[in-house]
Structures are given as C-alpha cells and as structure tokens.
Amino acid sequence: MSSDARNGRKGPPSFLHLRRLTDDTGLLEHALGRIPRRREGYTTDDNARALWTVTEWLDPKHRSRLRGEDVPLLRSLADVYLAFLLWTQKDDGWFHNNIAYDRTPEPESVSHDCQGRALWSCADAWIRLDEGRRKTAYVLLEKSLRTIDAIDSLRGRAYAMAACAHLLEAADAGAIELPDGWTGELRRHLEQFERLLCGAFRHFSQDGWNWFEPAMTYGNGVLPWAMLRAFRVTKRTETLEIGLDSLSSLQEAMTAESGVYRPIGNENWRTKEIVSYWDQQPLEMFKLALALEEAAVALESAPGEGVSLLVSASSSSDARPHSRSGTLTAERTEDRAGGSRVVALQEHAAAMRKARDGCLDWFYGDNDLGVPMVDPADGCCCDGLQANGPNINCGAEAVLSYLMTMALCSDDRAGNA
C-alpha cells in the first residue's frame, strides 16, 4: 500500500458529503462536482443503500471510530432514509424506484434488483437499529416479504437470499424474535434461492469461465457474498465451494497486471472474450470488499461445522482456497478423501481480509492511474475512474460505496487497519 493510501485510512470518517446530498425528502442521486443535482431526483436504490450504510456505522463495532457529533447525525439520516422507503413502498409491498425532485413518481417498470436491495436494507435495519427505528423497518420488511417469490433477477434474488439468512441467524442469536410462521418461510425462500444461484453457476461455468452469468456486469460481488452469507445458515458444502470459486474468478477479473485492483469497466463489461478497463465504478470495490469479508467469516466458521476445504496434491503449492484450478472441494471432515490435504482456513481468512483492505486502498490511489478517488476531509468520492482520470462528479452511489468499504475495512481482525 502506498504511503498516501496508508495516511488516508487514518482518522474518523466524514459524513459531510452524505449530509450534503441528503435533504428532507431523501438522498439525491447525482451531483455536479460536489453539489447535488436536484433535477435528477432520487432513487429507492440509493436510499436503501444509504439506510444500510448508516446502520453499518451505527453498529457498536464501529462506534469508536466516530466523532461525537456523528451518532446523532447518522440517526437523523436513518430517519430520512426510512421515511423515504416508507413513502415509496406501495400497498402490495413493491417499491417505486425513481422519484423526481418535486416528489412525483416517474414512469417505470418494476425493478427486481431494487426490490431485493430494499428488502435486505430493511431486514438489516430491523436487526441492528435502535428500538424506535426498528419498528418502522419491521413494517417495511413485513410488506416486502410478500413480494419475495416474485423477485425475478439474479441480484435481487441474491439480496433476498442474504436477507433470509441474516434474519434466521439473528433470530437464533436472540437479536430479534420472528413472528409465528416466519422461520419456516424464510428457510424455504433461502433454500429456493440457494438452489437457483447454484444452478446458474453450474449452467454458465465452463471452459475456464466460472461465473453465474455469461458476463460480469455491475455489482458483481453481491453474488459470491450472498452465497457465502447463505452458507452461514444452510451449511451446504456446495454453496461454500461456489461462493469461494466465484469470488476467486471475480478477484482475478478485477486485478490488473500491476497487482492493483481494477474494477470491471462499465463501457463493455467483462466476458470470456472482452475485457473493459474504464469507467471503473466505486460500487465494484465495495461489493468485492463485502464478498471478501464474508469469505473470511465463512472460512473461520467452516471447521466448527465439520467442513474442510481440500485441494488435490497435484494442485498449486500455496493451496489457496480461492484457487480457480478446479481442484478445490468443500467436504465434511468425515468424507475426506485420500490424496488431498486440508487448507489452513484461519490463515486464509486472514489473507481474505488483507485482500479486502486492498479494496479501500483503491479509493486512496492504489489504482490504474495512481490517483485518489476520495477527499477524506468531507467524505466525497468520484463517480468513476476513466482513462483520462477521475470523473469529478460525486454522486450518491459513489459516496456510499466509499463509506461502506471504509466500514468493512475498519475491522481490526485484518491486523493492518
């Protein structure tokens, strides 16, 4: 990590730009430079992401990094984002995504990705926010769950699957009490989505392409993240294996020859034949960090579940669990086959967190152009990295991606925060 990147990681986060983009209605989508573009209006997508971000930073594990005035600020922002979601959710549980600045809903078709994202954020808020705000999040979640069977996009299903796992795990830990009948329904949805994503991975993974789709497009890290999040609850070895293998594919696709991370460009995405380098999005770094942290958690929990990761004796000597050699398998300890050796899971969990921290370094200049994407003084983040430099506009998705990556990388377990 460069000295500039190391210095940029120090100190508390600034939420000044997030506050600048937020008015009494919600989080505005776009900015010209650092100034909000009111003409562009709002999206439920961004307000759901914002709710997740403030929920994350209000978690006790991050409180020590905040300034004294940050906690009341984040609570007031949570109120705004909850109110926005409460307003845009229709009676049937579906969310309207695009809202004009005059608070008029814009014409649109249903966004299944938005529905899954909002469902996750409401579930997370119900689990982790303080009591008064949790009640509102619960109402939003209860209505959202009516739509879960109809969510029909891969990323929407991934978010919904992760939400089901999150709720079941929180209930087991005593953080929430699920209403009668919810446990069985959440388990049913979780296993259904798990089968669908496993099937998608098996269908498209061939000839050296290990992924859930024929192209890596946007928000890619949410797919391995959701698989690894589901593993916490279902304990299915195939789910763990696919989660780690797809994450390895994504890491490889997002690593430049120099060794720095290179988000998949929005210009033409990434297929087996085509590689797009530019219009790199901060969102991709956040989602990769999210998946890497979840991989570390999965690797730490696997031995307690009687699961070992095995590599054949003929494979790479480093025995990385994220190898794409095709020789990785996740098996129950009692099923261990001869001719294989057990991966050192704790060591590789630490390696995953080290790789996770590299995602934050990208924001501070460890990228293709060696330029910072953020200003830590006010917490703003450029919308993308282009061949001629950063996009100077600092909209909602970018600042939220930066703040979430910063929260994920504040975990001291990595040993290099």
Helix-and-strand structural type: mainly alpha
Task: Enter the CATH topology name.
Answer: Glycosyltransferase
CATH architecture: Alpha/alpha barrel
Largest beta sheet: strand ordering:
6-5-7
> Total number of helical segments?
14
Number of individual domains: 1
Low-confidence parts: 1-5, 311-328, 335-341, 413-417
Name the shape in a single word. globular
End-to-end Cα distance, whole Å, is: 11 Å
CATH class: Mainly Alpha
Helix and strand run: HHEEEHHHEHHHHHHHEEEHEEEEH
Percentage of residues in strands:
5-15%
DSSP, total strands: 11
Q: Mean pLDDT across all residues, rounded?
A: 88
What is the helix content?
40-55%
If you compute it from the alpha carbons, what radius of gyration comes out, rounded to the nearest whole angstrom? 21 Å
| Largest beta-sheet characterization | 3 strands, antiparallel
Quick recap of the structure?
The protein has 417 residues and is mainly α. The protein is 49% helix and 7% strand. The protein has helices spanning 3-8, 16-21, 44-58, 60-63, 70-88, 112-128, 131-144, 154-172, 182-204, 222-234, 237-253, 282-301, 345-363, 396-408, and strands at 31-32, 35-36, 42-43, 98-99, 307-312, 329-332, 340-342, 374-375, 380-381, 385-386, 389-390.
